Amino acid sequence: MGQTFSQDNTDEAAKVLVLESFTKEKITRFFQLRCVHLLSPEELSTLTSSLDLTSANDRETAISYAQVAHLLHLANDVTELSTSCNEAIKLLADTFTVLGSLPFLRDSVENVEWPLTLKGLLIASAVFSGRIRRLLGHKYDYLKLLYIAFAASSSRANPPPVEKSESDPEKSSSPSGDDEFVVEAVRPPPDREDELDDTLTARRIKWDTCATIKSYDEIDINSLQLKASDFAKILAILLIVGSVPKKSHRDMQAQVQQSLKEKWTSFEEAAYSVLKYFDLEVDKINAKQISVSYEAFRAGCKNGIGSFIIDTLAKLVNGSIFSSITSDGNAEAGDKPPSTEESPKSPSKTRTSRKFEESRLINEPSIALISLALRNAGTRHTVDTANLVQLYNGSQSGFSIRSLEQKIFKWHAPTVFLVSGKRLKQKTINTNRRYQQFDQEYPRYFLANENSQKDWQANHDVLTYAVFVHSPWKSSNKKNFGDEEAVVISLSPHFDYYKTKPDPVLQGKSTYFSNLGMGIGFGNDQPVNKNTIRKYLPGNVSLTIEANLEFAIFRHISNGGPHTTTYFEKSTQERLHDEDFEDRFMITDIEVWGVGSNKELDEQRKQWEWEEKQAKARQSVNLRNTGEERAFLEMAGLVGNHGSGGSI
To answer: Regarding predicted confidence, which is higher, 555 or 350?
Structure first.
């Protein structure tokens, strides 16, 4: 059949491999077949039903972005969504188009008219759902693949002037369908060499060593441009999908669709905060002129955001394209869980829960950012509208330490402390005596004649910080309290997080609450308050709020010396990691929210698991009766014609 390339010193696995050559058309067909077999018959049945496929003619019909929105359960009618939200869904649909051209990515990258077909949708779904790892392994750089898809989608949304000439081979580098490609394949048994069909050949090929896939079709990654404004739209969709906990499928889908329709603007604002984690210079004004390079994308994905992107895309696809429970709420009769009397194994009915009411600082987008920070910091805690309870709101209860103490000290569970305000203007610094008093008591790091404001810090910034406090609150005028699960989070204008630095001596005791006139501190040593001496002792990474709850300072010093305590780790943002800066602001809002029991979230998750089990059981019965898998393969044009390539 072919010449083996094994050597005497290679392992047994290598001895059964041969090199075989196939045309581009054949390679594409084999890869499509292999991706189809990564999906279960139940999932293929669901996809066929969702697209209402009835004939072989459907397999080459272009799938519109509105159909993608319907398949992903993002919208039943895209005309009800804002222009920006529609643009985001188009970008997401285009990423399906790009990934659907695997293994020959240049086909879609270089041709903005390349359509999304059923076969492409299957390949892209295999990538997004994570099933493609069975072919390409865990060492494959999926983030690089996603960047290519995002950047190419951005280019498709903003196509450059056409310069390509068909007569110019240098500008038409994509291989033709007749070009031959060499791949590694498992040598078939000698007695079956004459019986090979496309399905068996597709399984024999070692796709993880395929040169076209390993090289990303030789695309120059540095030549791609992902517009910051387009990346923000993609991030906004991911924040919306990621913010929905597992619960009844219809409830999940309804929440996603409601957020896209009614809360898009606020989620997009949150997305721009995350976007600054990739590039601090980006804002809504210049986002259309700035591109996120692959280097910046890679750096931003290092500390958890990359896994968030991958996991959320998988959540989106697995919960929609392959789910038989539709987003319009018209589920089959069996979708409602039976009563406990009928089935002791069914989930208990969800108790009537209190209605969540958002505030100025806590809403679904800010909760999504807090959840992202806690996830990246590696904590085991979750926050959601179902387990957050408002304990204190300064605009309602008054801005005083005494009022704050009365509201939060009785809560013996984790809390989220939020403080927000406007960056101090020079006029306030020069004339406000209360601030000047605070400034005298707060040790200066920057010289008096030094401009400490960085170029990425704008005068009009609204600064919002959140602190996840795991330990119960208490008066701590002599000794700090806390543990190593505390996390300081920057919510705006840029997303960042500062997790507790493990230390056997400090033990995470990073918080103090002073009712003797020294305010609240996170990441500080105990302030000095003796006789006429009042002095704050801020840590290298710290948030300090003065006693009148009027001013606050966030400090980030990359190397404060041996005499300054470090309770929290430095920024994980690449540019800020080694930068010294401060955020000084006048407080406009303070809120404290209790993180309650996860009982309701657990009940919702059980409901989700039960629905998954029931849906798969129904699909399995239907498939046994109809032979849906074979029909789907024939309809997609992936079975029926046999043949394989030659070996070398």
So the answer is: 555
